[in-house]
Automatic annotation (TrEMBL):
The keyword Transmembrane helix applies. InterPro entries: Peptidase_M56, TonB-dependent_transducer, TonB_C. This is Energy transducer TonB. Keywords: Membrane, Transmembrane, Transmembrane helix. Residues 310-402 form the TonB C-terminal domain. It comes from Sphingobacterium hotanense. It comes from the Bacteria. The chain crosses the membrane at residues 6-22, 34-53, 95-116, 250-267. Pfam families: Peptidase_M56 (PF05569), TonB_C (PF03544).
């Protein structure tokens, strides 16, 4: 969902650059490639959310801290309720999204079928092209017929229909973005300006032909019409407009700060995503007692980290549930942090559980007992083989919570 939001924000930013800075320029081919390029850039930049940066060389993986207090059970109950609501909301949004995709897909297929039927009929009141197919107005004659044919042949030669179909396909999966109707319309306008520029040797006569054909033209969405009423005024305006000075091509450089802005958003959103999941931090081990035997070679920074069945959060929840206060700790009202280090062998077994920070009163021994009850892990992987790796888990106790 975050990917869709960021990619559509990026598309809106790029389109605003086009609308405010480029639309009135006569660099029609440049505008075409800018619109296509911004489409791909908008959906490629947020891919950075899924690019994993290699972890630095360090010695031990720290599991996010667990907190246990007197009111922990009530807190967990509230958390479960909130999680259930979040899942329900996500499922509803997901269903609405795919329903929209299905509806727009059906509409798209309907228009394709209707267009193919028109092409199969072989003649129409208006003239248009679609990929390699050209349909000409049956009332055109002589020079006008040749002029319109040349116009549509240029559309076919430049592959303009592919641009429109590409935009329509992107629109299917981003139907909620209000920019798409405008984007498709502007792409068709740029196409027409490109072809008009190449074929209008006599601009006055060409404009008169456009006006004459417009009287019998109905709006179309997928094909390229010779004279589309909704685009006609702007086409004639651009036809007679003085060519933009070459120096104004520098305006296209506005895409660079926009791209940097989107990269900044992606980086920040990625950091926020990482914060929503308990962060995995790595620290260096200090002096520890001699290690017990364990399976596999101990690798400090494996390619793939060991993982608990159901994820690290599931391990934290397990330890939290299995931890038992000693009576001595209750009587003393202990408050503070306990830290345990352990090794996950290549067979997934936990060993070498050592308390490196303790609060006394049996609190460290209780943490060891809770960890020992956990099931086997999925071991770390190095060069395609399972290996042993180190972990650390901090647990904070506070019996004073109310």
């Amino acid at each position: 969902m975050l990917y869709l939001i960021l990619s559509n924000i990026a598309l809106i930013v790029f389109f605003l650059i086009y609308w405010l800075g480029l639309r009135k320029l006569t660099f029609f081919q440049w505008n075409r490639w800018f619109l296509l390029g911004s489409l791909f850039a908008a959906y490629l930049i947020p891919m950075g959310l899924y690019v994993q940066v290699p972890m630095p060389e360090m010695m031990i993986v720290e599991i996010p801290e667990i907190t246990i207090g007197a009111n922990q059970q009530a807190i967990e109950a509230d958390k479960v309720s909130a999680d259930q609501w979040d899942i329900l909301s996500f499922q509803t949004l997901n269903a609405m999204y795919w329903l929209g995709v299905a509806m727009f897909s059906a509409w798209f297929l309907y228009r394709i079928v209707a267009l193919l039927r028109t092409i199969g009929a072989g003649s129409a009141k208006g003239s248009f092209s679609f990929f390699g197919k050209i349909v000409l107005n049956k009332e055109l004659q002589d020079e006008d017929l040749q002029q319109v044919r040349n116009h549509e042949l240029e559309h076919v030669k430049q592959g303009h229909s592919l641009d429109i179909i590409l935009l329509e396909i992107f629109r299917l999966f981003n139907w909620f973005n209000p920019i798409y109707p405008m984007l498709i319309r502007e792409m068709k306008f740029v196409h027409e300006c490109i072809v008009d520029e190449k074929n209008a040797d006599n601009k006055v006569a060409y404009a008169e032909l456009l006006l004459a054909q417009a009287m019998n033209t109905k709006s179309a969405l997928l094909q390229h019409e010779f004279s589309n009423n909704s685009l006609l005024k702007n086409r004639i305006t651009m036809l007679f407009k003085e060519k933009t000075a070459y120096k104004f091509k520098a305006i296209y450089l506005l895409a660079l700060p926009a791209t940097l802005f989107m990269l900044f958003l992606v980086v920040n959103c990625k950091q926020e995503e990482q914060k929503t999941e308990p962060p995995v931090e790595e620290i260096t081990l200090l002096d520890l007692p001699e290690e017990e035997k364990f399976e596999g070679s101990l690798i400090d920074n494996p390619e793939i980290l060991a993982d608990y069945p159901g994820g690290i959060d599931n391990f934290r929840k397990f330890v939290q549930e299995k931890y038992t206060y000693t009576q001595a700790a209750i009587d003393a009202g202990v408050k503070g942090k306990i830290v345990a280090n352990f090794i996950i062998g290549s067979d997934g077994a936990i060993s070498n559980i050592i308390i490196t920070e303790d609060l006394g009163h049996g609190t460290g021994e209780a943490l060891i007992a809770a960890i020992e009850k956990a099931e086997k892990w999925k071991p770390a992987i190095q060069d395609g083989k399972p290996v042993a790796s180190r972990f650390m888990i901090p647990l904070r106790l506070d019996l004073t919570q109310q």
